[in-house]
Amino acid sequence: MSNYRFQGATGEWEVVIGLEVHAQVVSQAKLFSGAATAFGAEPNTQVSLVDAAMPGMLPVPNKECIRQAVRTGLAINAEINRWSRFDRKNYFYADLPQGYQISQLYHPLVGEGYLDIDADEKAGIAEAKRIGIERIHVEQDAGKLMHDQHPTRSYVDLNRSGVALMEIVSRPDMNSPAEAGAYLRKLRSILRYVGSCDGNMEEGSMRADVNVSVRRPGDEFGTRTETKNVNSVRFVMQAIEHEAQRQVDVIEAGGKVVQETRLFNPDTGTTRSMRSKEDAHDYRYFPDPDLLPLELTEAFVEDCRASLPELPDAKRNRYVETLGISAYNADVLTAEVETARWFEALLAEGAEAKQASNWVMSELFGALNRLGKSIEDCPVSPPQAAELLKLVSDGTLSGSLAKQVFEKMLETGDGAGVIVEREGLKQTSDTGAIEAVIADVLAKNPGQLEQYRSGKDALFGFFVGQTMKAMGGKANPQVVNELLKKALS
Amino acid sequence: MSVDSATVRKIASLARIAVSDAQVEAMVPELNNILGWIEQLGEVDTSSVAPMTAVIPNTLRLRDDAVTDGDVRDAVLKNAPQAEHGFFAVPKVIE
Fold first, then answer.
1. Helices (H), A286-359
2. How many C-beta atoms surround the C-beta of residue A56 within 10 A?
3. Which among A200, A337, A410, B25 is most buried, taking Cβ atoms within 10 Å?
């Protein structure tokens, strides 16, 4: 149980959160038509007569969309319903030409499952927690409305109309904005590993309806509100924070929370009532007579199962237990599927796991951060990085030389070996040369030498630094340490 | 099951069908007749019969994931009362 509490004027409140995540399925064509799904096309160019709901058009489901939803279900440990059915959800809106959305109310494709969120002290999540997922159903997306193009008209683009969505409905198992954020990030990570949704919240391929209610700790559930279409993890957390505060204020002022649909305003971080949808909840669902029930064979489900990659939790455990990588590094390296892929490509080139994980976490991420690049457009390839790491492990390069070489690799795109040769950046273990420099350093710093000899041991590092500096960072630090100890004793 | 005039008005409004008071008055007994007739089906004991989901013994056919349609904007917009710049143009609907 979360110990997150919302402080009201009259005492503490517990927040109860459930999320309905709409995840756009990765597919070439739409759920019920052969029109394309690519983002950003000219308006209404990716619309078939089926999507425009012309009379007499019949929907035929896209097998890939079903397959991806089943794979997603298996990845969240859910039961896959061998028999499911499509229903019509009836409402009128300008972005919905059919006058109904084909969805699955009564018999969803995917039943009960779960995912685990990890403890995160910093975010106030004291311990790992299992979040129940009630169901995943498959449905059509609506079109897009644009309100700012004309003073009195709204423009309708149906390119998105009919694109397949998975609606992933959680149990009301979250009790703080942080837990909701962790759930969304974990879900996004799983979807991207599975490849069923690109998880791109800015382009709207993943958005959440946020259900929030408050209650006195241990009480029955309070009345909930649903804030629609929130499109980032941060906004979801803000919406929860704001909704909880608003509901607590209403109740503490003697009022009652009204069950309603609300809209989130990202500019102010607040929510407001969406009055127009008041009787929209009367959807008059009924089985779609254009579609037979969807029946899956065992072979189909088993194929889906066999096609699943190693998922983030399993991968992280393997990194820690088999590869000996620290838990923190393993968390970061496995959170995004692209990072894990890059890292594993590096290992496949022969890099040692621990060394490679530390290098990726500090040097590579540092560089990508600085360059404002993601790992997908990393200027250095895994084989190039493996070459660099090999030069470190065989003693050719010291840590600080490796940093210099890496910088040159980023600048020039050349390989590490080539750069070492060209720039003469090889580490030296030539004791004669190092001893000469040490003698020089000691001669130039008589004051420090005096202090060191009278017991100020911390100055040892000063001499190491001076020696390395005088040698342009090319001296083998271990040799420097040994020779310095000898010279100072 | 039966409906009253308020229910008829609500259903009509959900379906975006305009009905006059006179039409509502005429429709209430008409709908109740139909409902009563349908309700006779409830007299048959179906407790041991699985619900029928389709009248034909077929299974749902699934398509391959290939782009085979679309790129017919003119045809799509042809019947629109108003279209501008490749969009349908509708009376402003904003929250």
1. 298-306, 312-321, 327-335, 337-348, 353-359
2. 6
3. A337
On whether the B5-43 domain is CATH 2.40.50, my answer is no
Residue A305 lies in a domain: no
d(CA A226, CA A53): 29
Nearest CA-CA distance, residue A473 and chain B, Å: 58
Is A182 found in the same domain as A150?
yes
Residues of chain A contacting residue B51, judged by C-beta atoms under 8 Å apart: none
Q: In this complex, which of A44, A282, A287 lies closest to B14 when CB atoms are compared?
A: A282
Pair A469, A390 in one domain = no
Cα separation values, A410 from A333, A370, A381, A419, Å:
21, 11, 10, 11
Give the pLDDT confidence of A119-152 residue by residue, as tens digits: 888 888 989 999 999 999 999 999 999 999 899 9
Per-residue pLDDT at A29: 98
In this structure, are A372 and A414 located in the same domain? yes
Contact at CB, B72 and A48, closer than 8 angstroms: yes
For A384, the domain range is: 310-423
Residue A436 and residue A413 share a domain? no
Contact between B87 and A84 under an 8 Å Cβ cutoff? The reply is: no
A442 and A401 in a single domain? The answer is no
pLDDT under 70: residue ranges of chain A: 1-3, 275-281
Looking at the structure, tell me whether residues A161 and A28 fall in a common domain: yes
pLDDT tens-digit readout, A230-257: 999 999 999 999 999 999 999 999 999 9
Q: State how far the Cα of B81 lies from the Cα of B89, in Å rounded to an integer.
A: 8
Contacts of B53 in chain A (CB under 8 A): 85, 287, 292-293
| Among A28, A37, A44, the residue to mutate for chain B (most B Cβ within 10 A) | A44
User: Which of A70, A36, A59, A48 shows the shortest CA–CA distance to B66?
Assistant: A36
Residue at A1 is within a domain: no
The candidate with the shortest Cα–Cα distance to A83, out of B50, B3, B94, B76, is B50
CA angle A25-A26-A31, nearest 5°? 55
Interface test with A, best of B60, B64, B74, B78 (most A CBs within 10 A): B60
Contact B86 A90 (CB under 8 A): no
Examine the domain organization and report whether A419 and A435 are in the same domain: no
Number of separate domains in chain A: 3
Residues A408 and A280 in one domain: no
CA distance A374 to chain B (A): 30
Q: What is the ipTM of this complex?
A: 0.90
Q: Which residues of A touch B54 (CB under 8 A)?
A: 292-293
